[in-house]
Amino acid sequence: MAEPTRWATETKHGHSQWYIERFRTMAAAGQDLVGEARLLDAMVPRHARVLDAGCGPGRHAGELHARGHAVVGVDADAELITAAEEDHPGPRYLVADLAELDLQKLGESAPLDAVLLAGNVMVFLAPGTETQVLRRLAACVAADGFLLVGFHTDRHLRLEDFDAFVASAGLRVEHRFSSWQLHAWHDDADFAVTVLRHAAG
Questions:
Q1: Hey, is 181 helix, strand or coil?
Q2: Contact (CB, 8 A) for 76 and 97
Q3: pTM of the predicted model, to two decimals?
């Protein structure tokens, strides 16, 4: 059994439903909520196989599905997965902890073209599982595939620690930006968007 994630241990009762309603409200107001999905879409071939890791209520998984990709959305929070199935049908959604993820056992044997980790997924992992999560996600990705990871660098996870976890997982940093809009990286940035590939790739 995996250690409980920070999403479970550091948020209050009712947080998941608050999070769901927050994004439903923003979507109803016409706010742009899928910039991360647009970026990934630009990086993969048509009809790619994509994993939305820590998919939450499914906004990115749904957008990528609408753009023609075969999408699997995974989250450890069953409440968020239920909302994803209701609000963004089309992808296959699974309740699973990323630290224990085995897509083959879940019936997804074909390698993925890409994995998206948006919404501070890395920050909300259980402490000490970061390398394990990255290693399991890397095992799902084809030799020429990639992981696209974004998180705030001032919340629990320092960038230098993240880079150490990346190396330990057999991955390498290919590109880094300071926003999902691809603003140039700078050392004072409090947000990092990183493209990871297999170290041997």
A1: coil
A2: yes
A3: 0.94
